[in-house]
Write a structure and sequence with these properties.
It holds the Pfam family HTH_8. The chain has helices at about 10-25, 35-45, 60-70, 85-95, 110-125, 140-155, 170-175, 190-195, 220-230, 245-250, 260-265, 280-295, 305-315, 320-335, 340-355, 370-385, 390-400, 400-410; strands at about 5-10, 30, 50-55, 80, 100-105, 160-165, 185, 210, 240-245, 265-270, 300-305, 340. It is of the alpha/beta class and about 425 residues long. The N and C termini lie far apart (about 65 Å).
Amino acid sequence: MSGHILVVDDEVGIRELLSEILTDEGYDVHLAENAEAARAFRAQRRPDLVLLDIWMPDTDGVTLLKEWAGGGQLTMPVVMMSGHGTIDTAVEATRLGAADFLEKPVALAKLIDTVNKAIKRGVALPRRAPSMDLSALGRSTLIAELKKRLAQIAGNTAPVLLLGEAGSGFEICAQFLHQPASPWIEIKDRARLVSDPLSFVETLGNGTLYLPEVCELGRLEQKGLGLLLDRIEGSGARLVCASSRSLDAMVAAGEFDSRLFYRLSSLAIQVPPLREHREDIPDIANFMLAQLVEEGVCPVRRLTTPALNQLRNFDWPGNLPQLNNAVRTLAVTALASEIDAVDVNRVLAPMKHAAPAVAQGIPLDIPLREARDAFERMYFEHLIQKEGGSMTRVADKSGLERTHLYRKLKQLNIRHGRRLDEDL
């Protein structure tokens, strides 16, 4: 047989005996003397089986099993062990997700049979890493305050508007506000807000309706969202919207319905970008790496302290998705189990060099008007390419109202593709 087994027991004699027996059976055995050591090991990798003692000095095994189950880390079989086991304890452990129960002293044949069966059962389990939640977003003062604000409004069913930069964690915050065991519906097909907006409430019940980037809705979609909001008010359901653009500015420019804006923003929460709580980046990066190891995307890897410092000092304009892509690249392409600062520099170098284009090659002996037009043409062509042709984002980045932007592009003879919903 083969596989990685974690033995968690505070008695050194039992740890060594189990290690010797299981190593002879062909298993790779790792030892933990208490719950703290077991937590640290589990945070770094997913063993194929855990033999977990119930009675330990720092945290009992049932409590640790409950922690793993609640945190989404119980993705491997766990066999509980106890020299003072009772039927009630065995039943409780099984209810929490334990695969089996062994009483000490354990007979050799019984141990090997139980381990072999649990390992085989574990092979069939899906290797799913826990998704990132608010606890994984960091422990800085800024994030602690964000958690408190969200907790204060969690029981309220008024609409919530999450504001900030794209990728800063909107959905994580929305999931925190979501009531467990109730429906979660994300509005992905925005055309339904025009054709049949009330269809979203058919299975919603008292659940959460989540709409990312409400700022991208056209006029007809905004109207449909208003009708949808009318229907769910007072029903126990909640609408959570997110926006990476200033809706105040869009209202002032006539791009967003003012009445809908005031209804959506009755509870507005600002979500900070990564660079404003960069002290959390090492923990977030370690969490992302552990997810990849858990899912079998890469072998066991570890980010060194210098590597984590390099990640922390980068500004991450793309926030969490950009950091996640960098960590995935590091995990898959690193040539050693330890990812060091050289690896991080290799991955970050193209991002550092991808600075905005500068105005080069504009003659300085031409009239000011011509030089200004040449610069503006270069500026807007760069923005259009960078924002994938989205005039909404180009207007936001340039600080221009869209009607003014279109006039400017026409004046400069710049051709562009315009999304249909942007003119509604």
